[in-house]
Design goal:
- The complex is a heterodimer of chains A (372) and B (59).
- Helix content of chain A is 2%, strand content 40%.
- Chain A starts with 7 loop residues before the first strand and ends with a strand.
- In chain B, a hairpin with a 6-residue loop joins strand 1 and strand 2.
- In chain B, strands 3-2-1-4 form a four-stranded mixed β-sheet, with helices on one face.
- Chain B contains one helix and four strands, in the order βββαβ.
- Chain B is of the alpha+beta class and 59 residues long.
- The chains are: A mainly beta (372), B alpha+beta (59).
- Chains A and B meet through strand 20 and strand 23 of A and strand 2 and strand 3 of B.
- Strand 20 of chain A pairs antiparallel with strand 3 of chain B.
Chain lengths: 372, 59
Amino acid sequence: MSTVNVNRVVDASGGVLAPISSVMRNRIINGAMVIDQRNAGASVATSSGVSVYTVDRWVAIYSQTSKFTIQQNAGSVTPPNGFKNYLGVTSSSAYSIGSTDFFIIRQAIEGFNVADLGWGTASASSVSISFWIRSSLTGTFGAALMNSAANRSYPFTYTISAANTWEQKTVTVAGDTSGTWLSDNGVGLYIQFGLGIGSTYSGTSGTWTGTSNIFGATGATSVVGTNGATFYITGVQLEVGTQATSFEYRQYQQELQLCQRYYWKTDSSAGAWNYIGSGVVYSSTLGFAYTQYPVLMRSAPTISTYGTVNSTNVQLIAGGVATGVTAVAGAGATETNPMSTRIDFTTSGATGGQGCLPRLANGVGVTFSAEL
Amino acid sequence: MFKLKKDPIDNLDVLIKTNEEGRESFIPFDPANTDYQAFLKYQAEGGVVLPADDNEQAA
């Protein structure tokens, strides 16, 4: 039997006709920045904390607050051909970064999804990273791959040649034969794009380093250093091999479900009321509801609410009446698992033993987070 | 801020984190959950965890 070994099939002009590797070759989730469950396209401030999630699976991390905003389709420019969305960063000031500053956007790839790379072994596979980038600035920009322990990093640079113009970049990285790279439901690897990184957290481009906490490449342009500067990115792909192929554009439902392994929220937009499960009245002041998630989550999730929880917006239907709910709570810390949980609803005047159906008004719901 | 309360059914602990806006999150005791990992780190560094109270439900 004959075997044909090729990396890709191209037409006469070099265009890729068909991917050779299997579907799901892109290890990045939401690389086209389509899914934005948390913010629904709204701008996200970096005014508190040290990190904030933007479009699904992408998090902004910063050492100083309020130096930039981040938003799906910020600035409303036309995305590259074949794309409808991008992730946009806008600098809020002309900040001079210090040696220990860092401003990055990052995706953590689950270990299960890069286990085949064999990183940390002699048979480590190469990967190719490709992405579309557009900035109001030109010059050398930086990014890096990093392991979960942040003690193995590969900084690399890319050049933006023309301002305010989409450019596609590709980088091939020889797999790391050293270090520890997780292959379970922990962080398999980080991919991170620098928006301004101080010397403490920058490393030499194009080589693996064992120095801890190297988030980007030395000499890279600081986006946060110019007030109003923009940095837009989409079409991010990380795949096995030395040849970048065309972006793997997944169907919406498929991409959404991939995202929901890490975060999902109950719907709050369709209809006057929304339901998250049914259950039983436990006592006069408490009702339980069983909630099963849309997909198996990476870990047991952290449960929170959004919107205003009060007796008008959340009600417990039981015994033929709807009574107001004053609080919504997660179950005991050992009772939430990666597939389902119990949600508790505080009410008054209920009758224990009755079946119940909690309902939540538009704009109110529950979030489930198992992010890396 | 982390605090504990009691689950109404079996009296086991419920771990709650309150953010700067006062909104509460309920964190499972799953070693793979990053919020639980953050809690363990906070605890190991001597952070104060408010003790379990009665069966009062969190808002």
